[in-house]
Amino acid sequence: MCGIVGYVGQKQALEVVVSGLRRLEYRGYDSAGVAVISEGELEVRKKAGKLANLESLIGQDPLPSSTTGIGHTRWATHGGPTDSNAHPHVSENGRIAVIHNGIIENFAELRDELTAAGVHLSSETDTEVVAHLLARELPLAEFDLTVAMMRTCALLEGAFTLLCLDPHQPDVVVGARRNSPLVVGVGDGENFLASDVAAFVEYTSEALELGQDQIVTLTPDGVSVIDFDGNPVIPLAFTIDWDASAAEKDGYELFMLKEIAEQPRAVADTLRGRIGKDFRIQLDEANLDDAVIKKISKVMVIACGTAAHAGMVAKYAIEHWTRLPVDVELASEFRYRDPIVGPDTLVIAISQSGETMDTLMALRYAKEQGAHTLAICNTVGSTIPRESDAVLYTRAGPEVAVASTKAFLTQIVAAYLVGLYLAQVRGALFEDEVRSILRDLDDMPSKIDLVLDTVEPVRALARQLVDARSVLFLGRHVGFPVALEGALKLKELAYMHAEGFPAGELKHGPIALIEDGIPVVVIVPSPRGRAVLHDKIVSNIQEVRARGARIIAIAEEGDESITPYADDIIRIPEVPTLLQPLVATVPLQVFACEMATAKGHDVDQPRNLAKSVTVE
Ligand code: AGP
Fold it and tell me: Tell me, what's the pLDDT at 443?
């Protein structure tokens, strides 16, 4: 939701903090700000708008030299993106600067208490109350910033990652986290705090996970962690397995273009080491207990947005292979509908960031009900895998563009591996059947490469349709979640109405949307899979075409039967029915990216969005 960076060490703090914020700007970009300590004074600069606005402000009004600093890029929750609402927030006595990611749910009550005590609040944010509370608690904590943070956290409800500075403790940054991401970077004579390792990976690959309700105190030579009760905690160390260049554009104009192009490698990496020489599944690292697998009677997927679409695709495959019922639940709805979940349920939480609050809260609810939990996640050291019984990491590498692409394909692949593993352990598939599917999966990187080599017509089509008011997406079977994903991409990037439907559902109402020339993208099932699916979708195409729709068919090579019914055909390679989403999605990603580019939008950082939504 917001980007947070803290630094203490030997370097110029401003340089480290701003470069970290630049890497985190995808997490939120309504406003940005920094605070540093110099000669016993706090120096703060903050500005509405993107990081570039802050940098030009600092260019006009430079900060003094300093080796201790914190910085923030904001995705507004309380109060608009204005200069006064930008973080850091400073206490009335100018003693404390604080930055925050999350939502203080009891901030109104705290604000009223502070106001009644004569404190003047100058912003509309929930965060500002924390600055005043820390300043109030500091003398009660004998001016120990860590203790003041502990006392303050005891007053807060909701989700928060906090970093604060006190100029009277010039080489100290104190952080705290509850239900919101924070990770430590461990350097030589310097240490880092950030919402995401991308902020400091150029300086160190050694990191420490921070758990729930923990407070971290950083000095140049040390990192100490306590829980909210003051008990010492030994944080779990891990090594970041990718370098800073992976978070760069590497010559691509957009992160999204780079990440679309990285999909063959991302899928190959996600498969790597999980398919044995004899094409048997190897998921030992996932820590999936065979006894548990044999005992479960159903699977539930909890996820949001694109990750939920990946779960919907996986449902078809996992049910087909295991004969276990699979429910896909939008995480934000899951725990409020009194779901039937318990020790007989395997709950799979799919999340690229591993910090999506809706998904995290749904996971916790599932655990409270006794379910077994497995995370499919792209971010090592993040909260959702840490709180799951088992984890299978996707290996897409850092996904910087807010609109998810390579994470989606690797989530599907990881979910397929889990499904095959369940089928293998439960004996629902013969070993030779598993081997055959794994061979097909192993071919997918090259199939995706083929699609990437033939997407130029998709770009031209997007430019032709740049003025379309609306685009509909139709699919059947695994093509339906692909239609939803294609529509989401277009909404996110082109800011236009787009809607995905099960093709069979159109005639039950939505067909009223069809008017002359409306573009309708149809993901056409392979005629080699279930012929009936193909025949039905041809009928659906005719229904809308008869009413003036412009048909854009995503159809496999060699399927000439579709030709008479489509105005445009985007060809994809022949693959097994259940694997078609891995190739059919790519043209839709390119279509949305090109449409957004043609409209002059910020493709990597679309308006109103954030990469990781860490509030409910
Ligand atoms: C994807 O394009 C969106 N940015 C969004 O729907 C995203 O998939 C969703 O917020 C879930 O995020 P997660 O995978 O990090 O949990």
Answer: 96
Mean pLDDT of 583-591: 98
Residue 75 pLDDT exceeds 80: no
What one-letter code names the amino acid at 291? A
Report how far ligand 1's centroid is from the alpha carbon of 297 (Å): 28
Q: Is residue 604 domain-resident?
A: no
Q: Which residues, including other chains, have CB under 8 Å from residue 554's CB and lie 6 or more apart?
A: 521, 522, 523, 524, 570, 572, 584, 587, 588
Q: What is the pLDDT of residues 106-131, one digit of tens each?
A: 989 999 999 999 999 999 888 999 99
| Ligand 1 atom showing the smallest separation from residue 404 Cα | 2
Which of 60-64, 79-83, 483-487, 546-550 bottoms out in mean pLDDT, i.e. has the lowest?
Answer: 79-83
pTM of the model: 0.80
The answer, yes or no, to whether any atom of ligand 1 lies below 6 A from the CB of 305, is: yes
Residue 569 lies in a domain: yes
Q: Which atom of ligand 1 is nearest to the CA of 411?
A: 14
> What is the pLDDT of the chain when averaged over all its residues?
94
Query: Which H helix or E strand runs over 237?
Result: strand 237-239
> 588 and 462 in one domain?
yes
Mean pLDDT for 567-577 is: 97
| Alpha carbon distance, N-terminus to C-terminus of the chain | 11
CB of 352 sitting under 6 A from ligand 1: yes
420 and 476 in a common domain: no
| Whether the predicted pLDDT of 182 surpasses 70 | yes
Best of 404, 492, 609 to mutate for ligand 1, by most ligand atoms within 8 A of CB?
Answer: 404
Eight-state DSSP code of residue 275: B
Whether 161 and 279 map to the same domain: the answer is: no
The number of folded domains in the chain is 3
Domain containing residue 220: 3-243
509 and 416 assigned to the same domain: no
Residue identifier of the C-alpha nearest atom 9 of ligand 1: 305
Sheet with strand 232-233: strands edge to edge: 89-90, 97-104, 158-165, 173-178, 214-219, 222-227, 232-233
Whether 425 and 312 share a structural domain: yes
225 and 260, same domain (yes or no): no
Any ligand 1 atom below 6 A from CB of 77: no
Neighbours of 272 (CB within 10 A): 10
- Checking if the pLDDT of 615 tops 80, the result is no
Q: Are residues 541 and 567 in the same domain?
A: yes
Last residue of a domain, one of 391, 413, 442: 442
d(CA 123, CA 565): 58
* Residues catalogued as catalytic: 2, 611
Best mutation site among 306, 328, 484, 605 for ligand 1 pocket (most ligand atoms within 8 Å of CB)? 306
Q: Verify that 214 and 280 share a domain, yes or no.
A: no
Q: What is the CATH number of the domain that holds 214?
A: 3.60.20.10
